[in-house]
Specification:
The chain has about 90 residues and is α+β, with helices and mostly antiparallel strands. It has four helices and five strands. This is Putative sterol carrier protein.
């Protein structure tokens, strides 16, 4: 699945979430997904928090097959910036 397809898959969740803040998912060479409030984009932009992980792991998290906590604890997911913004993403993922 492409970054654009993943963004499209979570777009409705993001738009309905009431999420405040900005976060960038950096999929290391496959592209980025930037969530800013209730908007989502695949254009790189600054964010309060950057989460780095593989595209496969991001897809697994969205599908519910990979817990964000497990991904973080096993080193599959790295967080740079405001950790509270990353934790608020649980309402979307």
């Amino acid at each position: 699945m492409s970054v654009e397809a993943v963004a499209d898959k979570i777009r409705s969740r993001v738009e309905a979430s009431g999420f405040h803040g900005s976060v960038k998912f950096d999929t290391v060479g496959d592209g980025v997904i930037v969530i800013d409030g209730n908007t989502i984009s695949t254009t790189d932009a600054p964010a309060d928090c950057t989460i780095t992980l593989s595209l496969d792991d991001l897809e697994s998290m969205i599908a519910g097959d990979l817990s964000p906590t497990t991904a973080f604890m096993t080193g599959k997911l790295k967080v740079d910036g405001d950790m509270s913004v990353a934790m608020a993403l649980s309402q979307i993922l």
